[in-house]
Design a protein that fits this description.
With 96 residues, this protein is mainly alpha-helical. It has a domain of 66 residues. The chain has five helices and no strands. Helix 3 runs antiparallel to helix 4.
């Protein structure tokens, strides 16, 4: 009986003790703000990030066809992360 109730109690305790999520709003002035704007907004979210993600996906498929499993899996996951980087960053609470 305790084996069934204990996980539910732990889950309830964790839910009750969680606080509110706060997004970090970084400083956009100065050199750090300009560097963030160039790297994230113009490169990662722009055409450079999309081409890098698509290239990684193509390399992953080619590696999979050649039977190299580890580079294929890493390239496919990395390419998907690069293409979906804006959505991932937004879901993590970063403000672009």
């Amino acid at each position: 009986m305790l084996k069934r109730i204990l996980p539910v109690l732990i889950l309830a305790l964790v839910v009750l003790l969680t606080g509110t999520a706060m997004a970090y709003t970084g400083d956009t002035t100065g050199t750090a703000g300009e560097l963030y704007d160039v790297v994230i907004n113009q490169l990662l979210n722009g055409p450079v990030g999309f081409v890098a993600g698509a290239s990684a996906l193509i390399f992953g498929v080619a590696s999979l066809v050649m039977g190299r499993i580890t580079p294929a899996v890493l390239s496919l996951v990395g390419g998907a992360l690069l293409i979906k980087a804006p959505d991932i960053a937004t879901s993590l609470g970063m403000i672009f």
